[in-house]
Amino acid sequence: MKHDCIFCRIIRGEIPSRKVYEDDDILAFHDINPATPVHFLIIPKVHVENLYDADMGHQAVLGKILGMAGELARQQGLDDGFRTVINTGRVGRQEVYHLHLHVLGGPDPLNLGLKGA
Ligand code: AMP
Ligand code: ZN
Protein backbone atom coordinates (compact mmCIF):
# COMPACT_ATOMS: atom_id res chain seq x y z
CA MET A 1 0.00 0.00 0.00
CA LYS A 2 1.31 3.44 -0.96
CA HIS A 3 1.67 5.88 1.88
CA ASP A 4 2.12 9.62 1.57
CA CYS A 5 4.13 10.02 4.76
CA ILE A 6 7.38 11.92 4.38
CA PHE A 7 9.60 8.93 5.13
CA CYS A 8 7.73 6.71 2.63
CA ARG A 9 8.36 9.46 0.09
CA ILE A 10 12.07 9.46 0.98
CA ILE A 11 12.11 5.66 0.51
CA ARG A 12 10.56 6.09 -2.96
CA GLY A 13 13.10 8.79 -3.83
CA GLU A 14 10.42 11.48 -4.18
CA ILE A 15 12.15 13.54 -1.50
CA PRO A 16 15.97 13.67 -1.42
CA SER A 17 17.94 12.40 1.54
CA ARG A 18 21.58 11.96 2.47
CA LYS A 19 21.67 8.19 2.44
CA VAL A 20 23.76 6.25 4.94
CA TYR A 21 22.65 2.72 4.03
CA GLU A 22 19.92 0.92 2.13
CA ASP A 23 18.85 -2.65 1.55
CA ASP A 24 15.57 -4.38 0.72
CA ASP A 25 14.16 -3.90 4.22
CA ILE A 26 15.61 -0.73 5.76
CA LEU A 27 16.94 2.71 4.90
CA ALA A 28 19.28 4.91 6.92
CA PHE A 29 19.77 8.62 6.20
CA HIS A 30 21.06 11.71 7.94
CA ASP A 31 18.55 13.73 9.95
CA ILE A 32 17.77 17.02 8.21
CA ASN A 33 17.93 18.88 11.54
CA PRO A 34 20.74 17.14 13.42
CA ALA A 35 20.61 17.34 17.21
CA THR A 36 24.23 16.18 17.46
CA PRO A 37 27.26 16.29 15.13
CA VAL A 38 26.29 12.87 13.77
CA HIS A 39 22.56 12.17 13.71
CA PHE A 40 21.00 9.66 11.38
CA LEU A 41 17.76 7.73 11.27
CA ILE A 42 17.19 4.06 10.49
CA ILE A 43 13.72 3.23 9.22
CA PRO A 44 11.85 0.16 8.01
CA LYS A 45 10.78 0.31 4.37
CA VAL A 46 7.40 -1.00 5.39
CA HIS A 47 5.18 1.77 6.72
CA VAL A 48 4.47 1.30 10.41
CA GLU A 49 3.70 4.37 12.48
CA ASN A 50 5.57 3.61 15.68
CA LEU A 51 6.28 0.97 18.32
CA TYR A 52 2.70 1.27 19.55
CA ASP A 53 1.44 0.02 16.19
CA ALA A 54 4.25 -2.47 15.56
CA ASP A 55 3.66 -6.13 16.33
CA MET A 56 5.46 -9.45 16.06
CA GLY A 57 5.04 -9.28 12.30
CA HIS A 58 7.68 -6.55 12.40
CA GLN A 59 10.11 -8.57 14.49
CA ALA A 60 12.58 -9.26 11.67
CA VAL A 61 12.81 -5.69 10.41
CA LEU A 62 13.03 -4.24 13.92
CA GLY A 63 15.81 -6.70 14.67
CA LYS A 64 17.59 -5.67 11.51
CA ILE A 65 17.39 -1.98 12.44
CA LEU A 66 19.01 -2.65 15.82
CA GLY A 67 21.39 -5.18 14.35
CA MET A 68 22.72 -2.67 11.80
CA ALA A 69 22.99 0.28 14.20
CA GLY A 70 26.51 -0.53 15.42
CA GLU A 71 27.95 -1.12 11.97
CA LEU A 72 26.44 2.08 10.59
CA ALA A 73 27.56 4.06 13.65
CA ARG A 74 31.08 2.69 13.16
CA GLN A 75 30.99 3.79 9.51
CA GLN A 76 30.00 7.27 10.68
CA GLY A 77 32.94 7.42 13.07
CA LEU A 78 31.03 6.96 16.33
CA ASP A 79 33.78 4.88 17.91
CA ASP A 80 33.19 6.30 21.38
CA GLY A 81 29.54 5.34 21.64
CA PHE A 82 26.21 6.81 20.68
CA ARG A 83 22.64 7.25 21.87
CA THR A 84 19.65 5.58 20.29
CA VAL A 85 16.12 6.97 20.62
CA ILE A 86 12.71 5.87 19.35
CA ASN A 87 9.92 8.37 20.02
CA THR A 88 6.38 7.03 20.14
CA GLY A 89 3.18 9.04 19.91
CA ARG A 90 2.21 12.34 21.50
CA VAL A 91 3.71 11.59 24.89
CA GLY A 92 6.91 10.40 23.21
CA ARG A 93 6.96 13.66 21.23
CA GLN A 94 6.97 11.83 17.90
CA GLU A 95 6.89 14.21 14.94
CA VAL A 96 7.09 11.88 11.96
CA TYR A 97 4.66 8.97 12.11
CA HIS A 98 6.83 6.39 10.36
CA LEU A 99 8.83 4.39 12.89
CA HIS A 100 12.48 5.45 13.08
CA LEU A 101 15.50 4.84 15.26
CA HIS A 102 17.58 7.94 15.95
CA VAL A 103 21.33 7.32 16.17
CA LEU A 104 23.03 10.27 17.87
CA GLY A 105 26.69 10.80 18.48
CA GLY A 106 29.69 13.00 18.12
CA PRO A 107 32.53 14.36 20.14
CA ASP A 108 30.51 16.28 22.75
CA PRO A 109 29.21 13.89 25.42
CA LEU A 110 27.07 16.63 27.01
CA ASN A 111 25.09 17.24 23.87
CA LEU A 112 23.56 13.88 23.09
CA GLY A 113 19.94 14.67 23.86
CA LEU A 114 16.83 15.10 21.81
CA LYS A 115 14.54 17.89 22.96
CA GLY A 116 16.06 17.98 26.40
CA ALA A 117 15.97 14.21 26.89
P1 AMP B 1 10.64 12.33 15.81
O1 AMP B 1 10.40 13.49 16.70
O2 AMP B 1 11.26 11.16 16.55
O3 AMP B 1 9.42 11.94 15.02
O4 AMP B 1 11.78 12.78 14.82
C1 AMP B 1 11.56 13.05 13.45
C2 AMP B 1 12.91 13.45 12.90
O5 AMP B 1 12.81 13.46 11.47
C3 AMP B 1 13.39 14.83 13.32
O6 AMP B 1 14.65 14.71 13.97
C4 AMP B 1 13.49 15.60 12.00
O7 AMP B 1 14.57 16.50 11.97
C5 AMP B 1 13.65 14.48 10.99
N1 AMP B 1 13.20 14.81 9.63
C6 AMP B 1 12.03 15.37 9.26
N2 AMP B 1 11.98 15.51 7.92
C7 AMP B 1 13.15 15.01 7.44
C8 AMP B 1 13.70 14.86 6.12
N3 AMP B 1 13.05 15.27 5.02
N4 AMP B 1 14.94 14.32 6.00
C9 AMP B 1 15.62 13.92 7.11
N5 AMP B 1 15.15 14.00 8.36
C10 AMP B 1 13.94 14.56 8.54
ZN1 ZN C 1 5.67 5.89 5.89
Topology:
Layout: H1 6-11, E1 19-22, E2 26-30, E3 38-44, H2 59-75, E4 83-85, E5 101-105
Antiparallel strand pairs: 1-2, 2-3, 3-5, 4-5
Task: Describe, in plain words, how this protein is organized in 3D.
With 117 residues, the chain is an alpha+beta fold. The protein is built from two helices and five strands; from the N terminus they run H-E-E-E-H-E-E. It has a five-stranded antiparallel sheet, covered by helices on one side. A hairpin with a 3-residue loop joins strand 1 (19-22) and strand 2. It starts with 5 loop residues before the first helix and ends in a 12-residue tail after the last strand. The mean pLDDT is 93.
- Which strand order does the major sheet show? 1-2-3-5-4
How widely separated are the two ends? 34 Å
Shape: globular
Q: What is the average per-residue confidence, as pLDDT, rounded to a whole number? A: 93
Following the backbone from N to C, one meets helices and strands in this order, namely HEEEHEE
Helix content: 10-25%
In angstroms, what is the radius of gyration? 14 Å
Structure class: alpha+beta
